[in-house]
Amino acid sequence: MRTNKRPGLTRRVLVETALRLLDETGLEGLTVRRLAAELGVQSPALYWHIRTKQELLDEMADAIIQAAGMGPPREGESWQNWLCRRATAYRASLLAHRDGARIVATARRLSPETVKLFEAELAAMTSHGFTPALALRTITTVTYYVNGFVLQEQSQPQAQDESRPEAPSPSAGSSPDLPDPAATPTLLAAVHEGGPALGDQAFTHGLQTMIKGTEASMNSTTR
């Protein structure tokens, strides 16, 4: 039977340390044993606060989500602007930690506090004309979009450059990483015109497409 625990070791300290360790080692390097060593304790001491590694991952995901600043729209803020702001802040929170999107994707349970904030968001959306089902579908769709987008960003060997790519040389087709300019003129024109597939510009385009689609759907049902 457990009879004591290390003074000063709290769930908050544990999660903050785990997130810092995540930034250093990535998800693969994050183990309970390594976390215990970082905290200067034996592994069993952690089980006063977490029962399993999955519970630790859930706590880390919860911290990342809450850091984005959940909550309903501000007074006078349109649902479109709020949803854009919410998604942008959520993406920034995921990107703030190495493998942040993977951590959130593995979460199985969120805290009652986070669920309460989510409830407040849904209730606010219904006051803007959404049905409860459409409010839930809209937020979850945008959330899944952000998760997937950041998963792609964080899987890249290097951060994406927002600058426009230079025109490929005539010999670019010989590289396995670049298309043959003669065979893909439309693709290359699209890249030059629209920039890279990842990054702020691409993220905003996809987000605005979903918001405008939702707005059009709502307008069509109220006619």
From TrEMBL:
Keywords assigned: DNA-binding, Repressor, Transcription, Transcription regulation
HTH tetR-type domain sequence ranges: 8-68
Region of interest (Disordered), residue spans: 154-186
Molecular function via GO: DNA-binding transcription factor activity; transcription cis-regulatory region binding
DNA-binding region per UniProt: 31-50
Biased composition regions of type Low complexity, renumbered to the chain: 169-186
Keyword Transcription: yes
One Pfam family recorded for the sequence: TetR_C_1
UniProt KW 4Fe-4S keyword: no
Record-level GO BP terms: negative regulation of DNA-templated transcription; response to antibiotic
Name of the protein: TetR/AcrR family tetracycline transcriptional repressor
